[in-house]
Every structure is written in C-alpha cells, then in structure tokens.
Amino acid sequence: MIRISNDLLILSYMKAKELKLDSTFISLLKVEIQNRKLISIQ
After folding, report:
1. CB half-sphere exposure, 33, CA atoms < 13 A
2. What average pLDDT is seen over the chain?
3. What SUPFAM superfamilies is this protein classified in (predicted)?
4. Which phi and psi (to 5°) does residue 11 adopt?
5. What are the Cα distances from residue 38, in Å, to 22, 28?
6. Tell me: the pLDDT tens digits for 12-22?
7. Quick check: is 1 in a domain?
8. Which alpha helices (H) appear in the chain, and where do they start and end?
9. CATH code: domain of residue 20
10. Which residues of the chain have pLDDT under 50?
C-alpha cells in the first residue's frame, strides 16, 4: 500500500474527475478521502 499525503489525495481525486478516469479508481480515491474525514463529497 502506498501512503500519499492528504493534499495529494484530494488533488488526485479532483484531477481524476476532471479527466473522467475509471469510475472504480475515482471511487477508491473518494472512499479514502471520506475515511480520512478530509472533506465531505456529495
């Protein structure tokens, strides 16, 4: 498992959404953000 910083995680999520990457990958990022309680994603 690779540990990434909170900032990099959020930026990765935003970029993945922007580029319309694989929905499974986006979901994994979203779950990790929610697990860390960084931001609320609707």
Report:
1. 19
2. 90
3. Sporulation inhibitor Sda
4. -65, -40
5. 22, 14
6. 999 999 999 99
7. no
8. 6-19, 23-35
9. 1.10.287.1100
10. none
